[in-house]
């Protein structure tokens, strides 16, 4: 290709309207490989430093909300685990793959409730990002959403500096207790309906940093343990403030974050 035509190549992804090969090949999540009839070695769950792997008879389950993508399971047991595309979930239990049977009804109910509260947000949203104790990795992925490759403005998604203008609260970090009060004030200042997204393994479960004197077990625990935010309700319908969408990954990929934002808008399932 002549040098003067290189600048004319399209760099902005057209996902979700069109498939994106980079999204389909990025190792953003770990999923167990089902091998019916084969016994599962008892030592496999111990390979995970965060306890994300569990065994149920002859089946393995991976809690993607606790997986930090250290690759240990894939390297040591390539016949048992593989990389897949991360998918945000509208229910915390659905991050356990393969999905547990009892979560199917809960998924339908949660999706219906989320659709009811966000039916007015389908065209455009403003997002307020809150760092609640992140190591900085999640923020790099959030920042990537603004570059020419992802260009979230093309989808009507914008970041705002004020929670008073926010439709979506995007929270990263392990949920440090020092951020409990600022997060509560942010929740109180935001209008309703408000969609809360826990972005990344740290925000979902605390990652490697399990609950300590300085951190909670993720954003959900931090919100529930904060009296001001736990008691906050929607102005119109009394909906309690809670985490609505969980985005796995350590850190979550820009495509996973974009998927979560479109899920909040009701434009993806």
UniProtKB/TrEMBL annotation:
Domain NADH:ubiquinone oxidoreductase-like 20kDa subunit span(s) in chain numbering: 138-262
InterPro entries recorded: Complex_I_20kDa-like, NADH_UbQ_OxRdtase-like_20kDa
Keywords: 4Fe-4S, Iron, Iron-sulfur, Metal-binding, Ubiquinone
Domain of life: Bacteria
Gene3D superfamilies: 3.30.70.20, 3.40.50.12280
A Pfam family the protein falls into: Oxidored_q6
Family designation: Belongs to the complex I 20 kDa subunit family.
Name the UniProt record assigns to this protein: NADH ubiquinone oxidoreductase, 20 kDa subunit
Species of provenance: Acidothermus cellulolyticus (strain ATCC 43068 / DSM 8971 / 11B)
